Amino acid sequence: MTLRIRVQPAHGDASEHRLEGAELIVGRATTASIVIPDHRVSRQHARFLQREGAWWVEDLGARNRTLLNGVPLEHPEKLRAGDRLQVGDAVLRVIGDSEAPDDRDTGLTTSGGDRARMWTINEIHRAIAGPLSVAELLDLILARCFDVLNPEEGVIMLRGPDGALATATSRRRDASTTPVVVPRRLVDEVVGKVQPALVDDAAYDERFAGSASIISSGLRSIVAAPIVDAEGTLGLIMLCSRVAVRRFTQPDLEMLLTIASAAALRVRNLALAEALGWPVQVGMRFSKPSIATGLKALAEAGASKVAAVILSPQYSPLLMSGYARAID
Fold this sequence. Notes:
Blueprint: E1 4-8, E2 15-18, E3 23-27, E4 34-35, E5 46-51, E6 54-59, E7 67-68, E8 71-72, E9 77-78, E10 84-87, E11 90-95, H1 110-128, H2 134-149, E12 153-159, E13 165-172, H3 184-192, E14 197-199, H4 212-217, E15 221-229, E16 232-241, H5 250-276, H6 288-300, H7 305-310, H8 316-326
Parallel strand pairs: 3-4
Antiparallel strand pairs: 1-2, 1-11, 3-5, 5-6, 6-9, 7-8, 7-10, 10-11, 12-13, 12-16, 14-15, 15-16
């Protein structure tokens, strides 16, 4: 079967390349068979090679590894129509004979999607156990969401000390620095009602009827999940895309819910540690007794942060219990 590669760079128009000959090099170098002018792409990043009558893809030791269906390439893999590669910020789709050229990305193949989801969750759990700051953890989570769910825009919002939601990190496929706007009605649905949201096309969804911010953006397919733990709602993760490019599905929502759930406790613990000035430690977990011990030490030192943190709506339910034990 003849295969084609459709390349959608972060900037500019898509292009198609027929797989032919013995091999094709993908990279930033102008001598590459498929040139991707992206600073995250190595000069010789990956290659397509023909072997035993089939086409294979191999990472060439790139600093930013090639992803096949959301999973890093560790060794050469046989290509199939429908596969999705990520090289830097560019997305490469494998197209078979029977598939007409099309701008729409319908997501990962079933088997590839399962592998990508497992790898993403494992990566996030490793990050949760590591010495990352809140900002570093959220950046990693959003980057992995882009790897496996392929949105055009994404944002994570968290409650601040005053209880108000604010953008903690955001990302755009085109690398634009324009702020990602989260519609008020979506915030009410996801954070206010603590309900996930899957919007196939906001233009025809009664929940968002008349929302000018959604309709004018053109980003109508949306998936969002609350970041929530036993103490309350910390914030939300939202991914969105134009319908013509990507329609999110129920498995995408389930994946996002899993990511949000895995991140919730760690986000609260890290934010608490940073607020109290505690060092971030590998595998750090807090319990009420450990919080009590820390607060007691701060109280004895006359630390002014104690009152501010205790009064924060984000931490007060847990900290009041800990502080009560600290001053007993």
